[in-house]
Specification:
This protein is 25% helix and 21% strand. It has 955 residues and is α+β, with helices and mostly antiparallel strands. The longest helix is centred in the last third of the chain and has 31 residues.
Length: 955
C-alpha cells in the first residue's frame, strides 16, 4: 500500500478549514510538556487532555527504560535555537527523556491555532495538520479527493486539463536476461564423464576403521552385525553409509559372509551350530562335524567336543553326547582349532559297531575293532547265530558315559580265527568294495585277447624291462634307456617309459568304468589285494608279462647331461617285455655288474639304465625336492596265513631309479595335456599351512634349530634342517616331524603345483591299473593326440571336480585301512611277548600321554600319562614335551626310551607300554603362562593323587 501523503492546507481553501482535528489519545507516549509545566495540579493536566501520571514531574518518578523516540528535525532545530519559554530550574538534573521533551517546540497548524496544545505524539501532530471539513459536508480524506470535489462544484478549473490517468501497470518483476543466441553462446566445457568416486575412502575415511580392524572385531565377537560394529567403533550419522559400503566391499572380496543378519569371517563357523558327533580321537575325546556342509568348499572341519562339568544343583542337565548323536553346540576358536560346548542333544541315532564276539563265562561281549570305541555287552538273545570269534556288525541299544554300551548282532561277517582274516577287519570297517558285480566280471571276460596293430607302433624289438617288488602281482610299467646319438646333446640320454594301455579295455560309461571310479584305487594288504579292476584285466591282459605282446602307451624323453628334459613325445605302441626283475636283483646287477638274466641283458640294457639314472639324479639334485627318509614296515605272511616276520623295508637305488623315471613321465603327461588345453586331473601338493609351520618352528626352537620366517619357504629349507640333524639324536625323528608339518597331496582339476617334488605341474600317468586318476590322464592323452579309441568323453570337464574329490577320499580310505591292518598284524605278532622290554623313541606327545615307536618292529604303542612317574605332568605343546611341574622332568619328542609291553589288543591293533627310563631332569620347567593343556594329578603339592587318573584337564 502507498504511503499516505502528509496533510497540508490548500491555497484555495478558506482559513477556517485549516482548523486542527481533536487529537487522538495515544496508547503509550512520553509527555511533550516541559518540566516546568508538568508540575501543575492534576486537574489542570486533565483539562489539557493529559493524564495525571503524565503530568507528574519527570524527577518524581523512575525513568522508563524504554527509549523515547523524538522528532529528529525538531531536536536539531531546538539545539540550534533555545526555546524562549523554558525557564531555568534549580532542582535536580532532569533525566534524558525530560530534557528531550523540554527541547521540543510547540506545534502549530496555522496562525489562527498558534496557541493550541501540541499533540502528545507524531500521530497526533499529523492529525492536527489535517484540514477540517465544513459543517454540512465531511472533509475529503485527502488532497486528491478535495480536488475532485472542487472540480465537480466548478470551483476549480484546470487551464491545462491533464489526460485521463492511465491504469496503473502491474507490478514489474526483475528483468531476466534473454538467452544468448547459438552464435553468441559460449561453448560449454565438455561434460566430465569420469565416474564419481563412490568408494568408502571418499565417504568419511577419517571416521572409519580399517578392514583389518573390522575383521578382528568380527572374529572376537562372533554373531555381531552392522549395528554392533558401528556401536563398537563409535560410528553414527552419515558415516554409517560409508560403513555399509565398507562391509559390502569386504563381502565382495570374500572376507566376510552374512548369515542370518550376522557377520562372520569367510570360513568361520557361526557361534551356534548343529553338529554330528562322528568319532572319538585317539585320546578318547569326541570329534564332531557340521551336520550340514557344502562339500564344494572343501572338507568339513573337525571340531573338538569339550567335556563340561555340570553342577549337582543344575536345573537343566545336558546329557553326555555319544558317537552318532546330533547336538546343538556353541562354537569357539578359529579354523583348525574349533571347540564345541554342547547345549542340547537333539537326537540319538542307533550306531553301527563292528567287533569280535567274545564268550567269557556266562557273559557275551563285543570286542570293538576300533581303538576309539569301548567294549560292549552283547545280549545272548540277539546273537543271531554268531559264535565266539566271529566278526559281526552290531547296533547299539543302550549307551552312556559310565555304562558299557549294550548291542545286538545285525550281521555276521565271518570267522576271525587266523591272522589272514585281519585284513577283513579293515575292509568292513572302511566299507571298501571288495566283491565285483556280475556285470563287471562279464565285461572283463569278454575283453578281446588279440590286439589290432593298425593304430599302433610296433616297439616289440625295444628291450623294455619291468622292475617291481618280488611279490608284485601286476606289472604296469616298463623302462628303457640309451645314450642319445644326437651330436648336439653330448652325454644325454633317451629314456622310455611304457605303461599298460588300460584305456583299450576300460571304456568310458561301461560297467568296468563305473566300478573303477567307485573303488578309486587298489588297496594292498600283506595277505591280499583288493584291486580296482578285475584280475582278468589287472593281472592278465594289462600286465606287462615277460615275453608276451601287450598294448601300451609310451613316452620317449630326451635329457641332456645335467638331467634337464629337452623334448618328449607320446606313442601308442605294441611292446614285449624283455625281462621281469625285482628291485634286489636289479640292484645286485648295478652293484656288481652281474647279469641277472643272461649275457644279452646286462651290458646292453641294465648298464644304460644305470647311467641314465645318474644323469636324472643330477637334475633331481638341482630341483631339490623334499628329501624325507621314512622306513616302511613290511609284514611277511606265509601261505598258511601266519606271520613269518616283520621287517623294515630298505630303499635301494633301484627303487629310486624307477621312481625318478616315473616322475619324469608324469611331468611329461601333465605338460602335454596342458599344452593341448585338454582337461586333466592334477596331482597337487600344497605348501605347509602357517599353523603347522609355527608348530614345527616351536619344536625346532626347543632343540636350538631355527626355521626361516620368510613366507616363500621351499623344500630346500627343510632339507637343510634334515642334513644338519642327520648325525644327532634327533636325526631319526626329525623326518617324521617334518612330514607331519606337510600338507596332504590330493587330486584336483585346478593346478597349484607339487610342493614336495618342487614341480610346477604334475599328474599321475604311470599306474592306470591301480589308480583311476591315471586312467583319466590316459584318456586325455588319447583324445588330445588323436591316438585312437578310448578317449576322454566330451563334457567331462564339469565332472572332474567331483571325480577328484571322490578319488582323493578313496585314497585316504585305502591308506587308513592299510595302516590299521599293519598295526593289527604287529599286535598279533607281539601278543605272546607281554612283559618283554624294548627300546624305542618317543614318536608323539599328547595331553594324554606318550606314543613310542619300537626300534625292532616299528610298532607304535601308548604310555598313559597316569603311569609316568609320580609328578604332575603338563603338556608343553610348543616343545612337544611332557614336563613335571615340581621336578621339571621332561619327556620330549624324539627322546630314546626303554619300555615294557604290558597290554596287547590285537583286534584294535593297540599296544600299551610302561615307561622304564627317566626323562631329562632339571633342564626345563613348565613355562609360566604357557599352554599346559593337561596333566597327571599324581602329586599336587605333597598330597598324592589317585594313580591312573588323567586329571588336570585344561582346555
Amino acid at each position: 500500500m502507498a504511503r499516505k501523503p502528509r496533510a497540508a492546507a490548500s491555497e484555495d481553501a478558506p482559513p477556517e478549514t485549516a482548523a486542527p482535528r481533536p487529537p487522538r489519545r495515544p496508547r503509550k507516549a512520553a509527555s511533550d510538556t516541559p518540566a516546568t509545566e508538568s508540575a501543575r495540579a492534576p486537574h489542570a493536566a486533565e483539562a489539557d487532555g493529559t493524564s495525571a501520571r503524565e503530568a507528574r514531574p519527570a524527577t518524581a518518578r523512575k525513568p522508563r527504560p524504554k527509549k523515547v523516540v523524538a522528532d529528529t528535525k525538531a531536536v536539531v532545530a531546538a539545539e540550534a535555537t533555545p526555546a524562549p519559554d523554558a525557564p531555568a530550574t534549580d532542582g535536580p538534573r532532569p533525566n534524558r527523556a525530560t530534557r528531550r521533551a523540554a527541547l521540543k517546540p510547540a506545534t502549530v497548524a496555522n496562525k489562527a491555532a498558534a496557541s493550541a496544545p501540541a499533540p502528545p505524539n507524531r500521530a497526533g501532530r499529523r492529525a492536527a495538520l489535517k484540514p477540517v471539513t465544513t459543517a454540512d459536508e465531511p472533509a475529503p480524506p485527502n488532497r486528491a479527493a478535495r480536488r475532485a470535489a472542487a472540480r465537480a462544484s466548478g470551483e476549480l478549473v484546470d487551464a491545462n486539463p491533464a489526460p485521463a490517468p492511465e491504469p496503473k501497470p502491474a507490478r514489474e518483476r526483475p528483468a531476466v536476461e534473454a538467452a544468448p543466441s547459438a552464435k553468441d553462446r559460449r561453448p560449454r566445457p565438455p561434460k566430465d564423464k569420469t565416474p564419481k568416486d563412490t568408494s568408502v575412502k571418499a565417504l568419511r575415511p577419517d571416521l572409519l576403521p580399517s578392514k583389518a580392524e573390522i575383521l578382528a572385531f568380527i572374529a572376537s565377537h562372533p554373531g555381531s552385525g552392522k549395528r554392533e560394529v558401528a556401536r563398537h567403533f563409535g560410528i553414527g550419522g552419515g558415516a554409517k553409509v560409508a560403513l555399509k559400503r565398507l562391509l559390502k566391499e569386504l563381502a565382495e572380496e570374500g572376507e566376510v559372509e552374512k548369515k542370518h543378519r550376522k557377520l562372520v569371517r569367510s570360513g568361520d563357523l557361526p557361534p551356534v551350530l548343529v553338529l554330528s558327533v562322528v568319532e572319538r580321537d585317539r585320546d578318547g575325546d569326541l570329534v564332531a562335524q557340521p551336520a550340514e556342509w557344502d562339500e564344494t568348499t572343501g572338507d568339513a572341519p573337525r571340531i573338538f567336543v569339550a567335556a563340561q562339568k555340570q553342577p549337582r544343583n543344575a536345573r537343566i542337565r545336558v546329557p553326555a553326547p555319544a558317537v552318532g548323536d546330533r547336538v546343538l553346540a556353541r562354537i569357539s576358536g578359529s579354523p583348525g582349532s574349533y571347540t564345541a560346548r554342547v547345549l542340547k542333544v537333539l537326537e540319538r541315532r542307533p550306531e553301527s559297531m563292528l567287533g569280535i564276539v567274545r564268550h567269557t563265562g556266562a557273559e557275551w561281549r563285543l570286542e570293538p575293532i576300533s581303538k576309539k570305541e569301548r567294549e560292549a555287552v552283547l545280549d545272548p538273545q540277539t546273537l543271531a547265530g554268531a559264535k565266539d570269534g566271529d566278526l559281526v556288525r552290531a547296533a547299539l541299544t543302550r549307551t552312556g558315559p559310565r555304562l558299557h554300551p549294550r548291542v545286538e548282532v545285525v550281521e555276521i561277517v565271518g570267522s576271525m580265527t587266523g591272522e589272514k582274516a585281519v585284513s577283513m577287519l579293515a575292509i568292513h570297517a572302511h566299507a571298501i568294495p571288495h566283491v565285483f558285480p556280475a556285470a563287471v566280471l562279464a565285461e572283463a571276460e569278454e575283453a578281446p585277447v588279440r590286439i589290432s596293430r593298425e593304430d599302433r607302433e610296433d616297439w616289440r624289438d625295444l628291450p623294455l624291462v619291468t622292475i617291481d617288488p618280488p611279490d608284485a602281482k601286476d606289472h604296469d610299467d616298463a623302462v628303457h634307456a640309451a645314450p642319445d646319438d644326437d651330436a648336439s646333446n653330448p652325454g644325454g640320454f633317451v629314456c622310455t617309459v611304457a605303461i599298460a594301455d588300460v584305456g583299450l579295455y576300460v571304456r568310458p560309461g561301461t560297467a568296468l568304468d563305473h566300478e573303477a571310479r567307485l573303488r578309486g584305487n587298489s588297496v594292498y594288504f600283506p595277505d591280499r589285494v583288493v584291486p580296482m579292476l578285475p584280475e582278468r584285466i589287472s593281472n592278465d591282459l594289462c600286465s606287462l608279462r615277460e615275453g608276451l605282446d601287450r598294448p601300451a602307451l609310451a613316452v620317449r624323453m630326451v635329457f641332456d647331461s645335467e638331467g634337464r628334459k629337452r623334448t618328449h613325445s607320446f606313442h601308442r605302441i605294441l611292446m614285449r617285455s624283455a625281462a621281469k626283475l625285482s628291485y634286489a636283483a636289479a640292484q645286485a646287477a648295478f652293484d656288481a655288474g652281474a647279469d641277472p638274466v643272461g649275457d644279452d641283458l646286462g651290458a646292453p640294457v641294465l648298464r644304460p639304465l644305470w647311467d641314465a639314472y645318474q644323469v636324472l639324479a643330477r637334475g633331481r639334485a638341482a630341483r631339490e625336492p623334499l628329501a624325507l627318509e621314512l622306513p616302511e614296515r613290511k609284514v611277511l605272511v606265509g601261505p598258511d596265513g601266519q606271520i613269518e616276520r616283520i621287517m623294515t623295508a630298505v630303499t635301494l637305488e633301484a627303487n629310486r631309479l624307477i621312481e625318478e623315471f616315473m616322475i619324469q613321465a608324469n611331468v611329461a603327461a601333465a605338460e602335454t595335456l596342458e599344452k593341448q588345453k585338454s582337461p586333466l586331473v592334477y596331482r597337487i601338493h600344497d605348501a605347509p599351512s602357517l599353523a603347522k609351520l609355527e608348530s614345527l618352528r616351536e619344536f625346532l626352537g626347543s632343540i636350538e634349530v631355527s626355521l626361516p620366517k620368510q613366507g616363500n619357504l621351499r623344500p630346500s629349507h627343510f632339507n637343510q634342517i634334515l642334513t644338519r640333524l642327520k648325525e644327532t639324536e634327533h636325526g631319526r625323528i626329525i623326518h617324521e616331524v617334518v612330514l607331519r608339518s606337510q600338507s596332504q597331496a590330493e587330486y584336483s582339476p585346478a593346478n597349484i603345483g607339487h610342493f614336495g617334488l618342487n614341480l610346477r605341474r604334475y599328474a599321475h600317468f604311470t599306474s592306470p591299473i591301480r589308480r583311476y586318476a591315471d586312467l583319466i590322464v590316459h584318456r586325455g592323452l588319447i583324445r588330445a593326440l588323436g591316438l585312437g579309441d578310448g578317449a576322454l568323453p566330451d563334457g567331462i570337464e564339469a565332472e572332474l571336480p567331483e571325480i577328484s574329490a571322490e578319488i582323493s577320499a578313496t585314497e585316504r580310505r585305502a591308506m587308513a585301512a592299510e595302516r590299521e591292518t599293519i598295526d593289527r598284524l604287529v599286535a598279533y605278532w607281539l601278543a605272546d611277548r607281554i612283559g618283554a622290554t624294548f627300546t624305542g623313541r618317543i614318536a608323539g606327545v599328547t595331553r594324554s600321554g606318550l606314543f613310542v615307536k619300537l626300534d625292532e618292529t616299528g610298532a607304535d604303542g601308548f604310555i598313559p600319562i597316569g603311569t609316568i612317574g609320580a609328578d604332575y605332568y603338563v603338556h608343553d605343546e610348543g616343545r612337544h614335551a611332557l614336563v613335571g611341574r615340581n621336578s621339571g622332568e621332561t619327556h620330549r619328542l624324539g627322546d630314546q626310551v626303554e619300555v615294557k609291553l604290558v597290554e596287547v589288543a590285537p583286534v584294535a591293533g593297540a599296544l600299551r607300554f610302561q615307561l622304564l627310563s627317566e626323562g631329562s631332569v632339571g633342564k626345563s620347567r613348565p613355562r609360566p603362562g604357557g599352554r599346559p593343556d593337561k596333566g597327571f594329578r599324581g602329586f599336587k603339592g605333597n598330597r598324592p593323587g589317585p594313580r591312573g587318573s588323567k586329571g588336570g584337564r585344561r582346555r
